[in-house]
């Protein structure tokens, strides 16, 4: 499974031949067109609520594009970029020589059609292609009875029907960028500004549709040029996101490995991939794959075995914990024991029952087969050519018939070794990206092959006998490894120095090494891995993965610790699974706080962890707003009685218009706000506000009690109970005297008439005003607007440090201090503009 230490001449020649064939088979000439549309909502009168256009009435004002003629080879910048815009929108023509004016909306759509005919792109992308990109252009063209765009977009027309929806387009690949990011790069939310920040490490202004239309209504060429720059960047960024995720090369190589289409790699599941490869192999060996009906699948015997998942010995361990992992456990089990559809005779008890009752047929998987020949089975048993799985599945050995699954997996894994060897020998970045994509495709298909045999709910040819055999043998291998360590601990002279298994899950073991150093744990962990490997047939191998020191085991599939993969590692890597620091249904406030507390506990600094929590609670108002955003996937079908934030937000959006209804899988963001003072028995559900709604209402404040009491403390309690430590918390009054920091009002009785305190307020106002002006200039520089324009940029990119600074200044209450001071009425406060509006 791993590359050999020495490469033979034949292996080197094969690797060279493979590398040359990879160069020859690299993807050339893959042309990508990115389209973004400038439109006017509500006939040019967009509101804060209406931000998506209606193709029946909202006109297209401009279309912007970026073209990459050979995106897999030349992907740094587009070869062609430009746009088409209505002639009544003025802009700086010297800055945008590739932007053309057109008198009517139909002319814009005809220009886009001519562009598509000229460059004939294979792939058309848009960040939200279904709502604000190509799909909107097609629907708008249908409204205006402009048929040229549909004819140009689709390379094939069926029965002369008009092309109105993206589903009608034939012959081109259409990619929805945010949906691909959702599958390939999971995030808490998928606003374009957040995706650009996370993937491209850049800032991108997140401006509202209402503001865009407000700027255009001023008919200023410089301001209009700013809008054009924004949409030019947006068109280019959509492709750059896909390039950064290596979507084009990775998907094309997967399509070649699996023998399926480009779009099927993105849209179809793992069963489809396995079947595509297996059907080619079965045809080559004169087998026919059965197709099981839904009724037959429902009547099939259910699988009997589940993977081993031990209840962990929960605790916070400062001694080293070694993590060992079976390398490709289920594929190696199939190869080692020759498990396959083609080698399975059936279950032992069913075969006996069939022979005793002299039945002519019996069930194997979901289909009836002829009863096995008694003499043939007896002869196989006599010559030791039968293997019986731990749950009674009967299989012939490879000397009698080689497993098709084993043949496929061996070829996949050996090819992957060869690909990884080639990656080490060549420095060509394009070739290395190609090779990496192919080895990833081989790895993924090998790891999901078992799932194809056990898909008893939706699979085409599930077989419980094969699936049970694979799982039971993998479980048996893990149990034998555990028993070996337990038996050694009971011996007079323990070889493993008292090692204890504290957790086991499917194919991995967590082994505590009490009293050992980290260096000793590395040596002993590798020794255990070698001994377990020697107990199992080739290619089953227990691989040393890492040492976690310290390690906190919370519950099944929930653990965290500092990981070391090599003896030379000076610092550990914070490694968490299943807890709030990595879960997306939490918020960043909980994730950051919990990670810091855990790091302090790992340093055995319990007092420091408590002091940090106290500091966090006392300064909770200074934490950036983005850390309190919670998001969740929208699932479309909710029970009528369901009380969920996503359902509430979706209902609010749908009430604006049906076009605003979220799509399946879209992550909706919300903040839990402080309930009104006058309200009694207010529920959390009633305090949930959509993010944009929260930003637009300056009276709303974050409900810090909810985030601390309902989100942070329960998560920390699961860790603190392992120490054990009990933490009681109380969030004090956030209103304090500005002069002395005591009391519960803006001014205490002594500072209310103190002129020195008033001077501090005036200085604070001046400092905040200067900070706001500096932030405003930074925002203008972000969109490349000349400082002389003095335009306010109402960006809502919450990931941006500048936005956070502006919001903190904006939400400060220094002006309220002047209003309530004894001498405040003699001064005039400088009002700061509302950056949200």
Automatic annotation (TrEMBL):
One CC-aspect GO term: nucleus
UniProt-listed Enzyme Commission number(s): 2.7.7.7
Keyword annotations of the record: DNA damage, DNA repair, DNA replication, DNA-binding, DNA-directed DNA polymerase, Iron, Iron-sulfur, Metal-binding, Nucleotidyltransferase, Transferase, Zinc
Signal peptide: none
Residue ranges of domain DNA-directed DNA polymerase family B exonuclease in the record: 28-195
Protein family per UniProt: Belongs to the DNA polymerase type-B family.
GO biological process: DNA replication; double-strand break repair via homologous recombination; error-prone translesion synthesis
Originating organism: Panagrellus redivivus (Microworm)
Source species taxonomy: Eukaryota, Metazoa, Ecdysozoa, Nematoda, Chromadorea
Limits of the DNA-directed DNA polymerase family B multifunctional domain: 260-723
Protein name: DNA polymerase
Catalyzed reactions: DNA(n) + a 2'-deoxyribonucleoside 5'-triphosphate = DNA(n+1) + diphosphate
GO MF term (any one): iron-sulfur cluster binding
Requisite cofactors: [4Fe-4S] cluster
């Amino acid at each position: 499974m791993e590359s050999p230490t020495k490469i033979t001449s034949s292996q080197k020649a094969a690797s060279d031949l493979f590398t040359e064939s990879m160069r020859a088979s690299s993807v050339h000439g893959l042309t990508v067109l990115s389209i973004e549309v400038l439109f006017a909502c509500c006939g040019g009168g967009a509101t804060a609520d209406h931000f998506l256009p209606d193709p029946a009435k909202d006109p297209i004002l401009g279309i912007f594009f970026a073209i990459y003629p050979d995106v897999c080879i030349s992907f740094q910048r587009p070869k062609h970029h430009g746009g088409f815009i209505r002639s009544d929108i003025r802009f700086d023509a010297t800055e945008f020589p590739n932007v053309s004016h057109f008198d009517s909306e139909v002319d814009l759509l005809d220009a886009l059609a001519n562009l598509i005919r000229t460059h004939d792109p294979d792939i058309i992308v848009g960040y939200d292609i279904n709502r604000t990109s190509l799909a909107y252009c097609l629907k708008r063209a249908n409204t205006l009875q402009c048929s040229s765009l549909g004819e140009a977009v689709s390379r094939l027309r069926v029965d002369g029907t008009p092309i109105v929806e993206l589903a009608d387009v034939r012959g081109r690949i259409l990619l929805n960028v945010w949906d691909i990011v959702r599958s390939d790069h999971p995030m808490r939310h998928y606003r374009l500004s957040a995706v650009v920040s996370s993937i491209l490490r850049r800032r991108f202004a997140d401006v509202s549709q209402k503001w865009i239309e407000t700027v255009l209504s001023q008919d200023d060429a410089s301001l209009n040029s700013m809008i054009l720059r924004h949409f030019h960047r947006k068109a280019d960024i959509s492709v750059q996101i896909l390039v950064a995720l290596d979507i084009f090369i990775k998907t094309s190589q997967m399509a070649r490995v699996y023998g399926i289409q480009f779009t099927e790699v993105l849209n179809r599941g793992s069963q489809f991939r396995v079947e595509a490869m297996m059907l080619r192999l079965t045809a080559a060996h004169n087998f026919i794959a059965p197709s099981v009906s839904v009724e037959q699948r429902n009547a099939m015997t259910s699988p009997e075995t589940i993977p081993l998942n031990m209840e962990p010995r929960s605790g916070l361990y400062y001694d080293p914990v070694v993590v060992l992992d079976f390398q490709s456990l289920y594929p190696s089990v199939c190869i080692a024991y020759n498990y396959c559809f083609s080698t399975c005779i059936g279950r032992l008890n069913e075969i006996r029952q069939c022979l005793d009752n002299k039945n002519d047929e019996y069930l194997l998987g979901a289909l009836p087969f002829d009863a096995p020949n008694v003499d043939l089975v007896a002869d196989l048993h006599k010559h030791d050519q039968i293997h019986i799985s731990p749950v009674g599945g009967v299989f012939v050995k490879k000397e009698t018939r080689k497993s098709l699954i084993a043949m496929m997996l061996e070829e996949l894994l050996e090819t992957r070794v060869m690909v990884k060897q080639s990656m080490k020998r060549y420095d060509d970045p394009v070739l290395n990206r190609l090779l990496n994509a192919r080895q990833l495709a081989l790895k993924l298909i090998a790891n999901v092959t078992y799932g194809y045999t056990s898909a008893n709910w939706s699979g085409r040819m599930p077989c419980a006998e094969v699936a049970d055999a694979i799982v039971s043998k993998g479980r048996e291998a893990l149990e034998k490894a555990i028993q070996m360590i337990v038996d050694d601990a009971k011996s007079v002279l323990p070889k493993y120095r008292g090692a204890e298994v504290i957790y086991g899950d499917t194919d991995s073991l967590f082994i505590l090494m009490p009293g050992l150093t980290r260096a000793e744990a590395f040596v002993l962990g590798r020794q255990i891995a070698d001994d377990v490997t020697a107990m199992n047939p080739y290619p089953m191998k227990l691989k040393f993965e890492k040492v976690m020191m310290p390690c906190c085991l919370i519950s099944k599939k929930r653990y965290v610790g500092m990981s070391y993969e090599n003896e030379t590692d000076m610092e550990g890597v914070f490694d968490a699974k299943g807890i709030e620091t990595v879960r997306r249904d939490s918020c960043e406030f909980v994730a950051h706080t919990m990670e810091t507390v855990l790091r302090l506990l790992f340093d055995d600094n319990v007092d420091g962890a408590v002091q940090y929590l106290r500091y966090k609670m006392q300064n909770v108002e200074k934490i950036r707003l983005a850390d309190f955003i919670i998001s969740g996937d929208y699932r479309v079908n909710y029970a009528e009685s369901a009380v969920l934030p996503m359902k509430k937000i979706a209902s609010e959006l749908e009430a604006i218009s049906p076009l605003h209804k979220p799509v399946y899988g879209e992550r909706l963001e919300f903040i839990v706000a402080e309930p009104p003072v006058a309200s009694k028995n207010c529920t959390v559900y009633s305090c949930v506000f959509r993010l944009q709604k929260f930003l637009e209402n300056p009276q709303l404040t974050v409900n810090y009690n909810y985030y601390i009491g309902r989100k942070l403390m329960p998560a920390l309690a699961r860790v603190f109970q392992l120490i054990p430590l009990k933490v009681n918390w109380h969030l004090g009054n956030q209103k304090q005297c500005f002069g002395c920091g005591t009391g519960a009002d803006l001014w205490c009785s002594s500072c209310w008439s103190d002129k020195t305190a008033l001077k501090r307020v005036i200085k604070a106002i001046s400092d905040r005003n200067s900070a706001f002006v500096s932030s405003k200039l930074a925002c203008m520089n972000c969109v490349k607007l000349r400082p002389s324009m003095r335009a306010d940029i109402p960006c809502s990119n919450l990931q941006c440090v500048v936005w956070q600074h502006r919001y903190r200044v904006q939400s400060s209450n220094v002006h309220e201090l002047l209003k309530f001071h004894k001498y405040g009425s003699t001064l005039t406060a400088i009002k700061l503009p509302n950056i949200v509006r």
